[in-house]
Amino acid sequence: MELLEIAPLQNLLSHFRFMITVRSQEDCYHSLILFRLSSGLDTQQLESKTSEKSHDLQQVQSIHSDTRQIYVMEASCPHLGADMSHAEIEECDTGIVAVCPWHRYDFDLKTGKSETGLRACTYQVEVKVDPRDGVNKVYMGTPEEGKNWRLVELRPVSEEFADPPPPISTAKTPFLLPVVENEPVVPLVEAPKTLMQWAVLILNTPNPTLKVERTRHAVNLFRTGELSSIGHKSPNVPKPPDVPSREDSFRRNTVDPKKVKNRKNHAVMLHALANIEQWAIDLAWDIIARFGPTNPQLPPAFFSDFAKMALDESKHFSLLTARLAAISPSTPYGSMPVHASLWESATVTSHSLRSRLAIIHLVHEARGLDINPATIERFRKSGDLETVKVMEIIHADEVTHVTSGHRWFTWVCSQEGNVDPVSTFREEVRIGWRGEVKGPFNAEDREKAGLSPHFYEDLRGEMDFIPNINGSSDKHIGNLTEDMASVTIEYDGVTLK
Ligand code: FES
Questions:
Q1: Residue 99 C-alpha to ligand 1 middle, in angstroms?
Q2: Which residue ranges are recorded for the region named Disordered (predicted)?
Q3: Are 155 and 15 in contact (CB under 8 A)?
Q4: Atom of ligand 1 nearest to the CA of 77
Q5: CB of 279 closer than 6 A to ligand 1?
Q6: What is the tens place of the pLDDT at every residue in 333-346?
Q7: Terminal CA-to-CA distance of the chain, rounded, Å?
């Protein structure tokens, strides 16, 4: 059995649960959850133990037993596909089990067995010293079907599982726009009962603060099992709006991207980035609401991935608006001109999941990977290290978003008779993009996300027309989508996402 390095043991002491994504050389993906059970030692004691370099077998075994057990299992429940990241862990006579949040079937963490007869896929875990550097590392056995598995994502499930747990904060998130009065997070009338209904409600929520709050609430309900229906096969599934709602003041401030492009200062940049994140929240819900009903064969893991993406984008929006408030209190979010270019691409690709994944996630989001490092350096050079931290978080998350785009794009290709993902992607770009797919490319992060240069080098789109997102008429797109290629704002000569 092949063993895959997950991380130095010390890196896994910050939280009790981690999401893991692995990919084989054949582009097969698995999403996994790593559970680290409580050790009885505090984090400092564990850190000092695990940082000791040792080749001594007994010491290594003692470290392993101090961290008690580490388990890795598939992130989707084998019953109906619930996300197991928020499963309860219980000790029973036969061992330790993870209890699925949807229908409470329990699965032995070691064997995957359940009394129901279903079996979850679990993976062997080993803690051993890496002879190259003497560091204690955690390894897992790899899935059987592919070769040369690599780790493409490892991150804590959420701060709920931090070790030690975070202090309870009573401080309110520093949002800048008030939640609409009398409009609660959960509507008093016709509260959503499925993920589809939540997605459409959030798309129809114009206030960004309420959009963020509803996103957090819906994803939490979905993960903890309080919401256990996706609802994409229901005959009464609600339809997403053509364009997500925006507040009147926001609409009045929406301008041609050309007018935003040449403005240069940190507040303008943060405002522009927050605007893109607000659209990105909607894009994540839109792919769920628009393509779930038309693709009933999509597995629950697809919905878990894009719900996680919506949550990430809402975190990015909150982080950016908080930085904007800190550096420029007189220009809160919503006070500067914004643009709606991203939704032009959403409209162009609204007919096809394959096209949506290609253009939004593998062109637009992948472009973010190219641009973010230069943006981060600009903020670093100016001494704004708080914004550097925020941008680094955003960048790391976005690598995983492009990975999700690649995962589901290759999945769609396999469903359509194993069509070749590279040539199919290039054809989607030819018909759904205008102009060159611009570099320079961040080949390293693109490759992490599954995009080899065959996907994007020497690539041009030939699209001429897109529908007007206001729905009035078709229009010739000219400069607008050329701006989409570089995703709008420039700062000191560096084009930013
Ligand atoms: S028990 Fe997990 S989805 Fe039903």
A1: 9
A2: 230-257
A3: no
A4: 2
A5: no
A6: 988 887 788 899 99
A7: 42
pLDDT one-digit tens code per residue, 134-171: 999 999 999 999 999 999 999 999 998 998 887 765 55
- How confident is residue 179, by pLDDT bands cut at 50, 70 and 90? low
Rounded to whole angstroms, what are the CA distances from 382 to 36, 244, 378, 388? 40, 35, 6, 10
Alpha carbon distance 461, 211 (integer Å):
33
List of domains in the chain:
3-38+64-156 (2.102.10.10), 195-462 (no CATH)
HEC string for the chain: CCEEEEEEHHHHCCECEEEEEEECCCCCEEEEEEEECCCCCCHHHHHHHHHCCCCCHHHHHHHHHHCCCEEEEECECCCCCCEHHHCEEEEECCEEEEECCCCCCEEECCCCECCCCCECCEECEEEEEECCCCEEEEEEECCCCCCCCEEEEEEECCHHHECCCCCCCCCCCCCCCCCCCCCCCCCCCCCCCCHHHHHHHHHCCCCHHHHHHHHHHHHHHHHHCCCCCCCCCCCCCCCCCCCCCCCHHHHHCECCHHHHHCCCCHHHHHHHHHHHHHHHHHHHHHHHHHHCCCCCCCCHHHHHHHHHHHHHHHHHHHHHHHHHHHHCCCCCCCCCCECCHHHHHHHHCCCCHHHHHHHHHHHHHHHHHHHHHHHHHHHHHCCCHHHHHHHHHHHHHHHHHHHHHHHHHHHHHHHCCCCCHHHHHHHHHHHHCEEECCCCCCHHHHHHCCCCHHHHCCCEEECCEEECCCCCCEEECCHHHHHHHCCCCEECCEECC
Q: Which of 73, 74, 76, 79 to mutate to test the pocket of ligand 1 (most atoms within 8 A of CB)?
A: 79
Mean pLDDT of the chain: 86
Atom of ligand 1 nearest to the CA of 84: 2
What is d(CA 310, CA 132) in angstroms, rounded to the nearest whole number? Answer: 40
Regarding the beta carbon of 99 and ligand 1, being less than 6 Å apart is answered no
Per-position b or e across 384-400, b if 16+ CB within 10 A of its CB: beebbebbeebbebbbb
Q: What pLDDT is attached to residue 338?
A: 79
Tell me, what's the pLDDT at 47? 56
Query: Please, are residues 455 and 485 in contact by the beta-carbon 8 Å criterion?
Result: no
